[in-house]
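Input/output pair, single chain:
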Amino acid sequence: MSDTLIEARGLSAGYGKMAVLHDVDLRVDAGEVVALLGANGAGKTTTLLALAGELPPLDGDVRFLGEVTTAPMHARCRKGLGYVTEERSVIMSMSVADNLKLADVDPDVASEIFPALDGIMHRSAGLCSGGEQQMLSLARALSRHPKVLLADELSLGLAPLIVSRLLDTIRRAADERGVGVLLVEQQVQQALGVADRVYVMARGEILLSGTSAEVERDLAKVEAAYLQGDVEARRA
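Output:
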């Protein structure tokens, strides 16, 4: 039996009839961290939305837990999908504890994942630092025991020490609990340091894939993908 948890096969997806992704093949197996790299606008977040069920395929398919699925995101979440968005999806007017309660998460379990949360349970999430908000988002997702975790730009705007703590937590979830993680990340070296395998995306297509070691040996292509994105952004 395959240990592949989520997979895209020939996936094209986008907004309305406009395809952003083109013929994407990608998989995440149990117990591994897979990094999806690329410049802004490469299609990384669109890939996560399509895998999560927020965007329907225009072509190809998504397989979740071994079966082709067109189920909406909430149904996939009930079956073991976790999703941490780049917006730090916490309710700012509610306390940390109430954010956890709303997600039916035990605060003690969340504090085991990030002990720093224990001392701020009664603080409004809006008064928490960006790092604390991201720890809350990730602890909430992992406390629900997902089989697959999609994580979008965990490092955005955060100090290196906090980023290291977040990525170490993701790595432990894969190693100790068998969670399959797809990590969208702008910080190439940090992603290569935590990931088992890597996909590099440009203009909605997979430009390069391989183990972290293989991709690191071919950093020129990774840099070309980012440069291509920068040029296109300036033209827009």
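Confidence is low (pLDDT under 50) at residues 230-236. The domain at 4-80+147-235 is CATH 3.40.50.300 (Rossmann fold).
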